Q: What sequence folds into this?
């Protein structure tokens, strides 16, 4: 049996200061400063998907692309998981601020795949 490979990833995102972002057809939303976690998946080539999200130069396609393109927003951590995307998301704490963000095709009742974790931590 081939080894199980991660298909799910989580991006920890820091929004340094409040931003207003138009997220494709989903709408325009205010994102307070703080830490967020986004859960996504890729059936093939997970590394390429993650690298695409981390790239500054890309066509805006997924909801997370719009947020990551805003000034003062950056990924601070990437986790890879073998568990299914919705399972990982549902077991991740946080508050949903934008309904359906990253989950317009979700059939598991997640509400969104972006969660607000709270204000930025200061040293």
A:
């Amino acid at each position: 049996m081939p080894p199980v490979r991660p298909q799910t990833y989580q991006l920890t995102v820091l929004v340094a200061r409040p931003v207003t972002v138009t997220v494709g057809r989903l709408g325009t939303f205010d994102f307070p400063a703080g830490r967020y976690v986004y859960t996504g998946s890729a059936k093939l080539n997970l590394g390429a998907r993650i690298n695409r999200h981390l790239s500054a130069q890309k066509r805006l396609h997924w909801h997370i692309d719009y947020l990551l393109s805003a000034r003062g927003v950056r990924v601070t951590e990437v986790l890879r998981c073998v568990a299914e995307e919705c399972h990982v998301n549902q077991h991740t704490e946080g508050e949903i601020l934008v309904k359906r963000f990253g989950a317009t095709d979700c059939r598991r009742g997640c509400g969104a795949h972006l969660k607000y974790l709270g204000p930025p931590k200061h040293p």
